[in-house]
């Protein structure tokens, strides 16, 4: 009886499956969700995500494509962002979480349009990743500077 109550309270097997999510896949899913925040998943955003996955996680083309496909599937079926932010926050050091915020801004800016929905998404995600407002603003400034250089 206690085991049944425990399973009901923790979500049973689904909670165990979520805890097995790779933190890099969770981060990639957040990148996809940032691109989807304005309702349009532009090719340029998908290309930016692919570039980020290759450079940030040191992946080859095939591994980056597989990770991006998995992240797209997870983002499409997600009911909330907490399942991804929880894994990223627990598994990645602060410097990588701040870098992720910078990458989220880069994806949001990839299509050349400023979307209040993408901005709002990143503002909501940053505290869930334990990234404070100052670091979020600095990450945005770095992403904007990099976008101007491109």
UniProtKB/TrEMBL annotation:
Gene3D superfamilies: TerB-like. InterPro entries: DjlA_N, TerB-like. Residues 24-140 form the Co-chaperone DjlA N-terminal domain. Signal peptide: none annotated. This is TerB family tellurite resistance protein. It comes from Hyphobacterium lacteum.
């Amino acid at each position: 009886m206690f085991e049944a109550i425990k399973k009901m309270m923790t979500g049973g097997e689904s909670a165990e499956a979520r805890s097995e999510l790779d933190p890099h896949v969770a981060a990639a899913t957040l990148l996809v969700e940032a691109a989807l925040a304005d309702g349009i998943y532009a090719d340029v955003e998908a290309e930016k995500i692919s570039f980020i996955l290759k450079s940030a996680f040191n992946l080859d083309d095939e591994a980056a494509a597989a990770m991006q496909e998995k992240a797209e599937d997870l983002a499409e079926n997600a009911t909330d962002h907490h399942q991804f932010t929880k894994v990223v926050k627990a598994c990645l050091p602060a410097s990588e979480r701040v870098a992720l915020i910078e990458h989220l801004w880069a994806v949001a800016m990839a299509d050349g349009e400023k979307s209040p929905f993408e901005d709002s998404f990143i503002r909501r995600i940053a505290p869930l990743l334990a990234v404070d407002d100052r670091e979020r603003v600095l990450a945005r400034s770095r992403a904007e500077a990099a976008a101007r250089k491109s």
